[in-house]
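Known limitations

Structure tokens in this collection are predictions and should be treated as such. Users comparing against experimental data should check residue numbering before alignment. To illustrate the layout, the record for FtsX-like permease family protein is reproduced below. The input appears on top and the generated tokens appear beneath it.
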Amino acid sequence: MDLMEALRGALSALAANTLRSILTALGIFIGVAAVIATVAVGEGARRQVTAQIQSLGANLLIIWGGSATMGGVRLGAGGRSNLSYDDAIAIGREVPEIEVAVGSIRQTFQMVAGNQNWSSMVIAADPDYFIAHEWVAELGRLYTAEEASAARKVVILGATVAENLFGEEDPVGREIRIRQTPFEVIGVMARKGQNPMGQDQDDAVFIPYWTARRSVMGASRANARQVGTISVKIHEGEDMQEAEESIRALMRQRHRVAANEPDSVSIRNLSDIQATRDAAARTLSLLLASVAAVSLLVGGIGVMNIMLVSVTERTREIGLRLAVGARRRDVLAQFLLEALVLALLGGAVGVAAGLALSHLVADLAGWPVLVKPDAVLLAVGVSALTGLFFGFWPARRAAMLDPITALRHD
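Generated tokens:
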């Protein structure tokens, strides 16, 4: 039997019962659309999380002060202010895996520029902070180590702060005041967007550490060299877990922590955060894929049911074909082709609906969409296999009919 002739026959048989064919393909349609949307939105969300975490800095460890106990109440990580400027220097000097280690302090202040004002986070740190967190200037420049050690009153604005204080004007060379102290704007940072916690990373300004201590945040004998966190960037290719353990050991030594006491610091590995979020995304994708698989199963059962009905309705036609010389494999191929065409039509419409659905969900959720060609091919392939698998039994039943019995069928 010619393939084109068989295809025309399959399309003719499906067109003869258009509504029934559409309803039968609906399960395949829903399943394929769910597969496409699940993969596209899930992959887009995963990429967004990865980009957000990497915007904080690649191969980055954040060191916080340890937990403290007050009146029998245990405070969380960072409850103890026991990190110092010298701790960061020691970490960078004594742990070989480390590229830079830099302490920073941060506090919210009101900033004034002309008749405009804005409340934002002031981050005070040496220039190595920009290397650790991969900050770059879009306008102007970053301050230098010499300016930092000399406690120069220079400031770099985040993009959000620059917009709110200066609008569309170029702020480089202008002056702002932080706690009545004048600062010269020497640069504006390139945008980074939100971090994984949803905070705007561009709503911040950067000043040298010793400038903050002497002119803005103040210092006493107790906190003259205190820092809130230490940012540690590990060399590319080095084992972050090994570096983390070396830092813990060094901090225990520097802070004179006894062997039976807990660590004096808390270390956050951003790679662990990414791995946790990836695992959560995979779990959600697996759940949605399971729903899609159930839908494809239901659609496949629908195909089998309708093909069995079709075989019953066309029993006399099958008997006539067999009586005039058609081979059983021709009948088998005819009905298999009908099931395949039915499934592929549902799959093709499902692909289009899945693409539209993924863009809609992404727009509503604020996620990017990443449609992978292999996901589309997989969905179409699965729909074809569904048609073949569930269409085989009805097709075989048709092929095995006895011609005389079939001709007598009423």
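For this record: Confidence is low (pLDDT under 50) at residues 68-76. The longest strand covers residues 98-113. Please report discrepancies through the issue tracker.
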